[in-house]
């Protein structure tokens, strides 16, 4: 599994799932970020509270656009 990104607009929470595994512990950091750990102490997920207020959604949209544009450019070179 690769990185999975989910956003809950009602809660304004962005969740990055970085690997498979059940959560066994969570840690709330000072900047409203919650790190989720598996039973081996490895990070499984990162939750970002108030993601839109922190500008993270705009950054993800711009990243997605740039990847889409890059993919289109590469495909145009192939065909």
3D architecture notes:
The chain is α+β, with helices and mostly antiparallel strands and 79 residues long. It has one domain. Helix content is 29%, strand content 33%. The chain has one helix and five strands, in the order βββββα. A five-stranded antiparallel beta sheet has the order 1-2-5-4-3, with no helix packed on it. Strand 1 and strand 2 form a beta hairpin. The longest helix has 23 residues.
Keywords:
alpha+beta, flat, 1 helix, 79 residues
- Tell me how many strands there are: 5
Classify the helix fraction into a percent range.
Answer: 25-40%
Tally of separate domains: 1
Low-pLDDT stretches are: none
Please count the helical segments. Answer: 1
For the termini, the CA-CA separation is 30 Å
């Amino acid at each position: 599994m690769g990185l999975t990104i989910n956003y809950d607009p009602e809660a304004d929470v962005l969740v990055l799932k970085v690997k498979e595994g059940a959560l066994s512990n969570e840690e709330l950091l000072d900047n409203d970020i919650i790190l989720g750990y598996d039973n081996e102490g490895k990070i499984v997920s990162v939750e970002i509270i108030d993601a839109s207020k922190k500008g993270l959604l705009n950054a993800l949209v711009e990243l997605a656009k740039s990847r889409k544009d890059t993919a289109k450019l590469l495909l145009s070179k192939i065909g």
